[in-house]
Amino acid sequence: MATAPVLTCAIIDDEEINRLTLEHYISLTDSLQLVTSLDDALQGLNYFRAGNKVDVLFLDVQMPQLNGLDLLRVLSDPPIVILTTAHEDFAVDAFDLRVTDYLVKPFDYARFSRAVQRALQQHATPMAATTPVAAPTVPPDNDLFVKVNNKMVRINFDEVLYIEALSDYVIIVTDKQKYIVYTTMKALDARLPFDHFVRVHRSYILNMRRIEAIEDGAAVVPGGQHVPIGKSYQEAFFRKLNRI
User: Fold this and answer.
1) Which of 53, 160, 168, 201 has the fewest CB atoms inside 10 Å of its own CB, making it the most exposed?
2) pLDDT for res 242
3) Quick one: pLDDT at residue 11?
4) Is residue 137 a part of any domain in this protein?
5) Are 7 and 123 in contact (CB under 8 A)?
6) Bridge-based pairing state of the strands 143-148 and 151-156
7) In sequence order, which ranges of 84-146 are alpha helices (DSSP H)?
8) CATH number of the domain bearing residue 68
9) Are 83 and 90 in contact (CB under 8 A)?
10) Low-confidence ranges of the chain (pLDDT < 50)
11) Stated pTM of the model
12) Quick one: how far is CA 143 from the chain centroid?
């Protein structure tokens, strides 16, 4: 039986109690190995620029001199990042920077473990792509956290019909309701880990698995809603459709 991978990790947080909590949680987790625990983002910048690498970075946002988000922006090859912060206000920026998870302090070990599982899945994906023999891989989660009305909401993307861009926000449409998310379509498109979500129009991303019919240049989804398919997207769309 193959052993589970062990991911090396680092902590950058200026508050000692938060570092100690993370260090304790990591010590309880067989799939993690702590390499360094730093109390300043500038130390973290110097650490990575010196050529040091880890698989996962637990990163605080609000720190003196250099905050966690700015650190991410200047790193040329950042590791998998799990943000740890006492504030929800940075969720949109975190989303744009493609962080793996966003833990709002205080969080318990169960919530920490779910974030670690997402990191393990993300770490496994590129490894599976380079494996020369067929082997079972860890499927991605069917959900993502997005910021809706100043709180992080978990959305099951199996239930999503389509995503529509409107001005400086997007609307995620599910069978039951609509979520207004303040981000750009480009950022959301890059963030989605699901290959059955396809850009079919300048303003629409479509869940190909929820298509009921194609008519009059549009995809029909449950509820009789029509999602337009732009002319410049049609060739790629129909190639994809035949593989779904």
Assistant:
1) 168
2) 67
3) 97
4) no
5) yes
6) antiparallel
7) 91-96, 109-129
8) 3.40.50.2300
9) yes
10) 1, 127-140
11) 0.54
12) 9
